[in-house]
Amino acid sequence: MSDPPALSMLERAPFEAAGVLRVQAESDRFAAAALARAAAKRLGLSSRACEAVQIAACELAGNLVRHAGGGSVELGVSAEASVVRLCASDRGPPIHDVEMAFADGSTDRGPILPEEVFRRRGIGAGLGALRRLALVLVIAQSRQGKVITAYLGQEVRPEGVGCPVVVRAGRDDSAEG
After folding, report:
1. Strand partners, 151
2. I need a labelling partner for 79 at 20 to 30 A (CA). Which of 7, 89, 135, 152 fits?
3. pLDDT, tens digit, for every residue of 33-64?
């Protein structure tokens, strides 16, 4: 399956670094959200788009802690495309079932039972929300970790419509040599 046309355009757009945040604790998601909102605001995005960028950064950072033990969030802005790029990187396990992981109320292994919600510290709606907010998502994963890249801009998706998700093989460090 080929990549969506929007992704090709976004990957060619020039991006300026807007910050990198090491995420190690659940509270770091608030710093990621603030950094992302500030970048979106400097880019001149609408308040609704700034909120979407803030929510996306918060969800990505929270997932880094919950599912991978930490990682980093790198922000980039493209004035040419009016887009914020969020790249969440970790050394955690790959996503077992990507489609399942993006379904609200589920993990990458299946539905979340009500009695598991408190222990998990979430209801399994973060990646679904991310998919509804972003223009395009790219997941690159290997045994060595994963990078989830979200592109967010001025465009607001119709309610209930998710963006394209592109899954690629990540660089497997053990295969180098």
Report:
1. 85, 136
2. 89
3. 999 999 999 999 999 999 999 999 999 999 99
Of 134, 115, 120, nearest in space to 36 by CA: 134
For residues 49 and 41, what is the distance between their CA atoms, to the nearest angstrom?
Answer: 9
Residue 169: phi and psi, rounded to 5, are -70, 135
Higher-confidence residue: 98 or 20? Answer: 20
Question: Rounded to whole angstroms, what are the CA distances from 57 to 39, 153, 163?
Answer: 11, 13, 16
**Residue 26: which residues within 8 A CB-CB, separation 6 or more?**
62, 65, 66, 121
The model's pTM: 0.87
Q: CA of 71: how far to CAs of 8, 74, 119, 148, 162, in Å?
A: 26, 10, 21, 11, 25
Give the integer Cα–Cα distance in Å for 163 and 79.
21
- Give the neighbor-by-neighbor strand order of the sheet with 136-142: 16-23, 71-78, 83-90, 145-153, 136-142, 165-169
Number of residues assigned to the chain:
177
